[in-house]
Amino acid sequence: MTYCLGIKIRDGLIGLSDGRITNGSQLSAARKVTIMGSGGHRFFIMNSGLRSVRDKTLAYLRRDMGKRPTESFSSMLDAVGAFTTCLRQVAAEDKEALEASKLHFNLHAIIGGRLSDDREPTMFLVYPEGNWIEVDERTPYLSIGATAYGKPILDRALRYDTSMQTALKLAYLSFDSTRFSSADVGFPIDMVTMTNGDGNWRQTQFDYDDLVDQRQWWNRNLTDLAQRMPDGPWIDKLIPAAQPTLAVVGGEDRE
């Protein structure tokens, strides 16, 4: 299993992918995000699904890009079209044999960037069949893999006008919620950003020990907030002898 998350906000794009690879009882690490192209004509691709299908699809895409004068595309729509063409070619070659071996042709992809003909950055989620959807400002993120655990915090807190600084925190917390509940998702994580201010791509990787402070802060404050939350109407029905919890408002204790 995998967790990959792409976020589009006013300030730019964010991509996050976990690095855990599971094969039966064996664990290993591999990068699941790739930046394609060169110079100012770059975009990222994140994948979940069979590693062999992913590698072959990207190899075909690199081959086709190498035949182009600029080794890239004019728009993200062109890039997605080229990726889906390669994906369908791999499906035609390998899907029957994979399914005969009881392996699902299950490659999903998030593709994001801003190329020369694009008015603004954008992202697409590509399904194994080669069809796709585009990110929407009302729901400014796309995720693939083990998506259920990290979704609530994004739905509650992420907006199109969220700052890049805060969106990066939410991206990490979304991953951390997934990692905590899914044994198939884990460190290291790769994070990429493309900021509208300068149009530059930046990429880095973090392992478990790199984010101890953030993880401990979140766990501590979640517990503290649960304790400080005002009691609901269940308190006198389920715990008759309990004392009401005092909610802290403006630095003062109020019932």
Would you write up a description of this structure?
- The chain has 255 residues and is an alpha+beta fold.
- It has six helices and 14 strands.
- The strands form four sheets. Strands 10-1-2-11-12 form a five-stranded antiparallel sheet, with helices on one face.
- The longest helix has 25 residues.
The biggest beta sheet reads: 5 strands, antiparallel
Using the alpha-carbon principal axes, give the shape. globular
- Helix percentage range: 25-40%
Q: Report the C-alpha radius of gyration, rounded.
A: 21 Å
Q: What is the rounded distance between the termini?
A: 46 Å
Structural class based on helices, strands and sheet pairing: alpha+beta
Number of helices: 6
Order of helices and strands: EEEEEEHHEEEEHHEEHHEE
- With strands numbered from the N-terminus, the spatial order across the biggest sheet is 10-1-2-11-12
Q: Count the strands?
A: 14
Mean pLDDT, nearest integer? Answer: 92
Low-confidence stretches: 249-255
Q: Give the DSSP E fraction (strand runs of 2 or more residues).
A: 25-35%
Write the layout of secondary structure elements.
Layout (H helix, E strand, L loop, with lengths): L2 E7 L2 E7 L1 E4 L2 E4 L3 E6 L2 E8 L2 H16 L9 H25 L7 E6 L8 E5 L5 E3 L6 E5 L5 H7 L6 H18 L7 E7 L5 E6 L5 H17 L6 H4 L8 E3 L2 E3 L1
Antiparallel strand pairs: 1-2, 1-10, 2-11, 3-4, 5-6, 6-7, 7-8, 8-9, 11-12, 13-14
Helix pairs in contact: 1-2, 3-4
